[in-house]
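Q: Hi! Curious about what RNA ligase 1 looks like structurally. Here's the sequence.
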Amino acid sequence: MRRLGSVQQKIPCVFLTDVREEPSRKRYCESFQIVATETVNPLALEANIHSAVATEKVDGTCCYVTLYQGEPYLWARLDRKPTKQAEKRFKRHRRSQQSCEEFSWNVEEDFKSVPEAWIPAHRVKRHDGHPVPDEHGHTPGWVPVEKSNKQYCWHASAVDYEARAALVLRPSAGDENMLEITAVPLDDLQEQTLELIGTNVNANPYKLGSKKQPVHCLVPHGSIVLRKPPAVDFQQLLCWFQEALEGQVEGIVWHCGDGTLIKVHRHHLGLKWPDGDPRLSNRPVVVRVEGHSRHSGCLFALFSTLNGRGFSRLQDVQFDLPES
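A: Let's find out. The predicted structure is below.
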């Protein structure tokens, strides 16, 4: 299958949206929520969404593989955000103008500091050589995941720089119903984006690992293709999310032929997430990780002990740990 789109920017919803002044279902601290109307987004129609590849939207945190100091590296998502004072000024302007247009940012003073190695995401606009924030006042970007940085310790657990490999969850070749956890060379993942999922990410909707033995892995974006996706229609999508076994997912991301990405999230349709066991956590999986000793990273070594073993559900993957 051809490599599908890389996630570098916020993905627009398949429907035009409204903002409602009521508590968000997605983020507990927000007093508003964004909901879909029944009108298909013209951007989706222009990108010929009806011929697009529909894939599962996976609930994790976005990552990127690209070079760092000449070597393929895993990078974590880090948006450059405005300071509190600049954000207040930006929000006042947006309320008064009903738009973020014509707002003037001071790129030297209005933003919080980011690590020296930080890079802006692809297609971020620039002005006088400086990256320009999006309509939300954020500048999407990436920071390299270094083993010494405790902030990204769960990202780091899924990568082994000595072995130049990453722990990846993906469909198994030759069996579309089976998933596999395997060590993939970082060279093979270059310029791809992936979703980190696991025990300590987004409240662990897929029920991976445990507090005693956390489990994290990377899912390449666009890798889990939906076999019988619903039509791009509000009512049909709503019914699919509520009733179809395959619909127990966070959302859908459509990969259009021109590279455009379009999404819908259950929250856009007023639905809970998670709601029962997600489809991904109930899929069968086989472990194919070998050749990693205890010196090459704890999680890689533990998966090596399971090499060749299958589990009826992803959430059942566990290690035979010695009694403490």
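A: A fun detail: The two ends are 45 Å apart (CA to CA).
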